[in-house]
Amino acid sequence: MMKSATTQEVYCTTREAAQMLGVSLRTVQLWVESGVLSAWKTDGGHRRLPMSAVNELVQKRMGKNQSGAPAAGLFNILVLEDDEDMVRLYQMTMSAWQIPIHVTFVSSVYEALIVIGRGEPDLLITDLKMPGVDGFEIINLLRNDEVLHNLDIVVVTALNQAEIEERGSLPADITVFTKPVSFDQLQGYIKACLTHRKSMERKNGD
Description:
By secondary structure, the protein is an alpha/beta fold. The chain has eight helices and nine strands. It is globular, with a radius of gyration of 19 Å. The N and C termini lie far apart (62 Å). The N terminus is likely disordered.
């Protein structure tokens, strides 16, 4: 750790931050790249994180895993992601959003289908490239299902458009976000879904 002579702020390395937060080094790097944690680079290209930001994250945002039975009236989101670091990033970021959502995380298509079978979510967020049965296959399965074909689906992937096309493309109504995902854009999309649902509820109530 080091202290700035001008601001008296104490800084730590990404590895030290990972140890304090109980996450992997890659998770901290993802948080920095996504703007969740502030950082600056030394002349040698090494990241330094202010301890105040790390401590705030420990106190306010870690451990807020939105799991368990969803409360009535919440917007239910199912996230299919097999990368544990990405799951932690989703958990930590989405738990801080001041919107009425409930998020369930699964790491395989098999688990996702079990959750969907218990009750259709309002939104599925899925990666595409996963071992075994991947995101392409669950999307095709859902779109060909008489009951679930209208399920709102968002893809978050590291694949580019050409790579997606090589795999057979995606339905035109699928929204695609590229990794590293912009959580501001994702939150905006979910807020738009919430607004649409409220509008439909008012319309049906008339």
